[in-house]
Amino acid sequence: MPVIAASRPDGLGTRLLTILHARAWSDYTNDKLVVFWESLADVNYSENGVLLQADDYQDIFSSDSVFTDRADIQVVPYNSFATASKVHLSQIFGRLSSMTKEEFFSIYNNCEVFIYDLPFPISFVDDLGTSAFNRNAKYWDAIGFADDVVEAARTLTSLSDGDSGYTAVHFRRGDMLNALSRSSLSHLQNVGITQVFQRYLPVATAISTISSKLSSTRRILVCSEDREISQRFQSLLGEEFHVASSEIFPHGGNKAALLDLLILANSSSLVTPFKSFFSECAVSIGKCQAYNPGLDCVNIVKELDSYLESTGAAEMAQRKAILYSCGYMNMWHMPDDPFRSWLLSSAFASDHDIAGQMTGLSSLSGK
Q1: Angle, to 10 degrees, between the axis of helix 338-350 and the axis of helix 316-330?
Q2: How far apart are CA 75 and CA 6, in angstroms?
Q3: Which H or E run includes 147?
Q4: What CA dihedral angle connects 114, 116, 122 and 126, to 10 degrees?
Q5: Rounded to 5 degrees, what angle do the CA atoms 67, 23, 261 make?
């Protein structure tokens, strides 16, 4: 029988979701589970390259054992199984729906290490009769998180946790802003800008969501590495409404990320970006109600346009053309909106070639 290895080289939420689903699979098959804590592969996450590295997992966990109820599930070096035959879940996941259980296990049992590298459940585990939500919540409670971060989360949430709980807001900034202002134009145009739009929650959008849907809440926790966002909330909503997690670990890093995730998971209401596995992790194991305002292209473009201007980034015109073109394409359902028309004209004015490539148009006339 193979050893199961939970392994993701990207953000904290995706890593932990992958570990939770791998734990469910291990319990289902009774096969040994280990965790590979690989170094983060995305250079946009951290300027100094020290976030989520292979040797810093004890920033997240209190020991080598990931779970308190199963001490055998430990973080081990990736090279521990360097010569073993491997099958990656990501290689076969797209075919699972057409496979029988027997066909899947014929592949699964024909390797020495099964790399569980996706933050999704394997459908066969539903034979256990429990929902993924219930499994995730149970396993989450058994994770032995770092004691100092758990205590910080307990202290911070106690300041804001009344009878109605508190609202948490997740703003992702550092790597998204780096991607916009520093990544190569080819990466930004082909992949990066879509990820930025999906993961960027504008401050104006979050405040509008809170005001319209959560007007009764008086306790807000802001989770972001950008302290200017905290200051904006403080000025707009009043200091008594607001506590920022960045005040606990002001220098950011792994512990700050974990603190934010614990705060999101323990909230009663959570305002999320359009697409974020960090927020999805919190929702999948927490008791919170998620409020996703959707893709607010108007405010995304306005805030990111202002940010780009402030950076003096190289290739400014090209980056703006990519930003405007992406906004234009994502407002496809609003063909007569004046802002969409402005985006198209601004994209072509910034860089005609990029605008044409991204919109499929050769000119403003659409020909």
Answers
A1: 150
A2: 9
A3: helix 147-158
A4: 90
A5: 65
> In this structure, are residues 259 and 149 in contact, taking their beta carbons and an 8 Å threshold?
yes
Put residue 312 in one of left, alpha, beta given phi > 0 → left and psi -120 to 50 → alpha. Answer: left
- How far apart CA 201 and CA 278 sit, in angstroms, is 13
Residue 270 near residue 291 (C-beta atoms within 8 A): yes
Per-residue pLDDT of the chain (367 residues; tens, 9 = 90+): 899 999 998 889 999 999 999 999 999 999 999 999 988 766 555 444 467 888 889 999 999 999 999 999 999 998 889 999 999 999 999 998 898 889 999 999 999 999 999 999 987 766 655 666 678 889 999 999 999 999 999 888 776 655 567 888 988 877 788 889 999 999 999 999 999 999 999 999 998 898 888 765 567 888 887 777 877 777 777 655 566 677 788 777 889 889 999 999 988 889 999 998 889 899 988 778 899 999 999 999 999 999 999 999 999 999 999 999 999 999 999 999 999 999 999 999 999 999 999 999 986 655 4
Q: End-to-end alpha-carbon separation of the chain, Å?
A: 60
Tokens of 293: 């305002």
Q: How many helices (H) and strands (E) does the chain have?
A: 16, 10
Which run of H or of E encompasses 243? strand 242-244
Q: Flag whether the pTM goes above 0.85.
A: yes
Instruction: Compute CA distances 30 → 22, 179, 187, whole Å.
Output: 11, 42, 42
Question: Are residues 100 and 174 in contact, defined by beta-carbon separation less than 8 angstroms?
Answer: no
From CA 64, how far away is CA 176, in angstroms rounded? Answer: 31
- 289: nearest Cα among 263, 266, 270: 270
CA-based max dimension of the chain: 65
Q: Which residue matches tokens 């170094």?
A: 39
User: Residues 207, 203, 329, CA angle at the centre, nearest 5°?
Assistant: 110
Bridge pairing between strands 3-7 and 33-36? parallel
CA distance 234 to 242: 6
